[in-house]
Amino acid sequence: MTIYCVGSINADHFYDVPHIPAPGETLAGANFRIGLGGKGANQSVAAAKAGAEVVHIGAVGADGAWAVERLSALGVGTDHILTVEEPTAHAIINVAADGENAIVIYSGANLCQSEDEIAAALKSAKPGDRLILQNEASLQVEAAQMAKAAGLEVIYSAAPFSTEAVEAILPHTDILVVNDVEAAQLSESLNVDVADLPVKGMLVTRGADGADFIAPGDVTHVDAHQVTPVDTTGAGDTFLGYFVAGLDQGMSVADAMGLASAAGALKVTRPGTADAIPSRKDVEAFRA
Predict the structure, then answer these.
(1) How many Cα atoms sit within 13 Å of 79 on the Cβ side?
(2) Most buried among 125, 170, 228, 267, using CB within 10 Å?
């Protein structure tokens, strides 16, 4: 089976800081580095490192050839990544000494997705394949509609959070993915218990408190591994990519969550985003 991802590709600019800057505060960064990131790219890389066949659908600027090459080197199919006039998206990521982060994103080429390219990529998809989406790229609803028409399962990560975006795509979503803060925001804005949303399943990640998969009449929980965090950036994306890959490989929800929990925990012990996502071999060794 194949996992398709219509998603963001970013150049991540990291600054190590003693703490997250307060309003009006200027801090000196201890280190600076640039790496591959974006929620879409992170999720594609995580699924590929978990052993899945992954096709990424996205866009970069003329300055983004390195990002496409890096995705390919990490095992992701890149034939459907366009080069557009807008510059490649980038993120400014402040990483504090305790591993927490604060991020500012410039969307750039991520908002230049092509319906024709999405259709071309999904032309080879088969019923039972999966599509991952997030809110960092355009045409989420259109991509979800195409995927559902082709018999794919749609997994939608509602981040960065937007009630309007969730409402638009929910009718075409099989699995909704949020963190605990986003779940509370969604429940309040829609005035509904998240367990009652019209989806096949809902994955709620809760950081150090683990994660829950909420299905009609059933909740599957996985505990978080206790580790010392170095950089929490991309941990949720790593969890999701490994989770979807586990489902794609025939795992139960509980087993896929166990695999994903270990991958996410191992990720936070490493600085960086896509380049720091652990291999399946490393994750299995960590679990053992």
Answers:
(1) 8
(2) 267
Q: Which helix (H) or strand (E) holds 190?
A: helix 180-190
- Tell me the angle at which helices 115-122 and 140-149 cross, rounded to the nearest 10 degrees: 30
Instruction: For the chain, list the domains and their CATH numbers.
Output: 2-8+39-82+111-287 (3.40.1190.20)
Cα 150 to the center of its chain, rounded Å: 22
Q: Please give the average pLDDT of every successive group of 10 residues along the chain, which has 288 residues.
A: 97 92 91 93 98 98 97 98 97 87 92 97 97 97 98 96 92 95 88 84 92 93 93 92 98 98 96 94 96
Closest to 154 (Cα-Cα) out of 132, 137, 138: 132
Contact 4, 131 (CB under 8 A): yes
Of the residues 12, 231, 237, 248, which is catalytic?
A: 237
Cα angle, residue 115 at apex, residues 113 and 119 outer, rounded to 5°: 120
Would you state the pLDDT for residue 186? Answer: 87
Q: Which pTM value belongs to this model?
A: 0.93
d(CA 132, CA 63): 25
198 upstream amide cis, omega within 30 of 0: no
For residue 182, the number of C-alpha atoms closer than 13 Å in the C-beta half-sphere is 21
